[in-house]
């Protein structure tokens, strides 16, 4: 599949998410109870629901999307290039509406590529689109499809080579594939703090864009191609 994959039909994607509320005390009482029930078996015996709330961003029922970054491959003068665009802000509905409007202009056969996308990014997007009352774009309508009918690409799944118990982070995968990545990034566990405490959305957007770039480079490695040099990567507003 990868050898014949047309990169012009691939959109690389990454999302950043945070808890819907800055702290557990801000959560409406009914949802506090639901959070306690949801996380009962995930918390260790010493953790309270309040202490565990910092992880709420990874659960679509209690989190929200604050950034979606996309990467598009294209060729110019026989040179492979990558264009990056982001939708970010505090209004999730607006972010998802812009994202949906963009996808509605794309072919139905468009394939997404993300690292751990099948376990996180793709279902999270669908759930939050539904919560926000936005029709799920055709490219993300996966309900009822068998696993082999979903043609999206997951770089973590590619690295598993059939081993369903194996998890490898994007940072580790890029390191072992000798893909240069910036060392000044935040990591996923810091996004909530940077958003609610530092109030630095721009920093999160930059982090999200860098993950898209890294995922795109990993995909190129799987195709046996050279990575795209920094000067051929453009970030558009």
Automatic annotation (TrEMBL):
Asked if the keyword DNA-binding belongs to this entry, the reply reads no
Name all Predicted 3'-5' exonuclease PolB-like domain ranges.
Answer: 61-225
What UniProt keywords apply to this chain's record, in alphabetical order?
A: Exonuclease, Hydrolase, Nuclease
GO molecular function term, any single one: exonuclease activity
- InterPro entries on file: 3'-5'_exonuclease_PolB-like (IPR019288), RNaseH-like_sf (IPR012337), RNaseH_sf (IPR036397)
Q: Does the keyword Nuclease apply?
A: yes
Signal sequence, renumbered to the chain: none
E.C. designation(s): 3.1.-.-
Q: What enzyme category does the UniProt record give?
A: hydrolase
What Pfam families would the database entry show? DNA_pol_B_exo2 (PF10108)
- Protein's UniProt name: 3'-5' exonuclease
Q: Which organism is it from?
A: Pedobacter vanadiisoli
Its ancestry begins with: Bacteria, Pseudomonadati, Bacteroidota, Sphingobacteriia, Sphingobacteriales
